[in-house]
Amino acid sequence: MNFFDAREHRDPAERERDLLARLPQQIQHAKAKTPAFASLLKAVDPSTITSREALSALPVTRKSELLELQKAARPFGGFSAIKWGASCARVFASPGPLYEPEGARENYWRMARALFAAGFREGDLVHNTFSYHMTPAGSMMETGAHAIGCSVFPGGVGQTEQQLAAMLDLQPVAYTGTPSFLRILLEKADEAGITLSLSKAFVSGEAFPPSQRDALAARGIHAYQAYATADIGLIAYETPAREGLVIDEDVLVEIVRPGTGDPVAEGEVGEVVVTTFNPDYPLIRFGTGDLSAVLPGASPCGRTNARIKGWMGRADQTTKIKGMFVHPGQVAAVVKRHPEIQRARLVVDNPDLTDRMTLKCEAAEDAALQAGIVASLRELTKLRGEVAFCAVGSLPNDGKVIDDVRTYE
């Protein structure tokens, strides 16, 4: 069997109908069970949220805002639908600290689907080197592996010599962890004259360029990656097609213009915003702060869900100019005031070590429009800025709303 379940290769229209049919119920659940969404969505009738267009009108809750929300209402900012006890198996802390609950349901983080796509199968022994301390990565992999029917050695991080000794004794066929730690283990094994039994790997938490993938394949280790967060769990995963990351079956992903909640056109780079169907931590339009883009077409592997390019940088491009913070949302507000602008990018440089900001606009050159944009910049950012017109389609498609090119040499 090449698929974790039949949902992976169903008709895309069927999947979309299923997700949208589940959406009003999840919004109703979030309003009823979490104080945060009871407040955020107070005026929203869940029964009306039956399309992506309707969903896009709801507010985005960004990860960058969650820290302050949690500080105001410990431990989860009012976003969790479960409390201490049997329904909450574990609680984790990510840097910030941000706290994340782990419900007691099997495969809570939904990582089994990604591990299966990476070749993990029932009866495998998995050597898991993700941390079991404070953060959820170790549990993410272990619970996903258990859902497939794998056994897990909880190696955790560090202690290279002891880990190699255990691998030599236990002969695991699969590895989970960062690609850099796998490289360290392999190099140490080479130095000791040891041949490891690994034939498959699932890596995350770091960049995994094709050069690293090919180097592992040359050793007989076929490694795959995924995109997941401590708040959401699995978002998208790599398949044997090696063409982008296929979106998980139990999340609804939007790509929006940074600083806004407005979806961008297919192929355009923007911020990844995710709505989960997790009843324990029901995040609605959660802004991850990561940049990506939807790839056209379907994966050659046979999975029919949409694909994203993977992690392409951070969406939070807030920049301090002349002592004032300028946010992507302020740039978006300027553009909304002037519908003649197709796309825009605020470029910040410092000729003669003096900060300067220029809004590059894809629009026909017009003196009155230029004056209006300058006035809008001044009003919305409290700073003076210049305007430069450029041809439609000439600005890079990289998700940048603010491009800081200042140098200090």
UniProtKB/TrEMBL annotation:
Q: List UniProt keywords, sorted A-Z.
A: Ligase
Give start and end of each AMP-dependent synthetase/ligase domain.
124-275
Per the UniProt record, one Pfam family is: AMP-binding
Show the SUPFAM superfamilies listed in the entry: Acetyl-CoA synthetase-like
Coiled-coil segments, which residues?
none
The superkingdom listed in its UniProt entry is Bacteria
Query: What InterPro entries does the record point to?
Result: AMP-bd_C_sf, AMP-dep_synth/lig_dom, ANL_N_sf
Q: Protein name, please?
A: Phenylacetate--CoA ligase
On whether Transmembrane helix is a keyword of this UniProt record, the answer is no
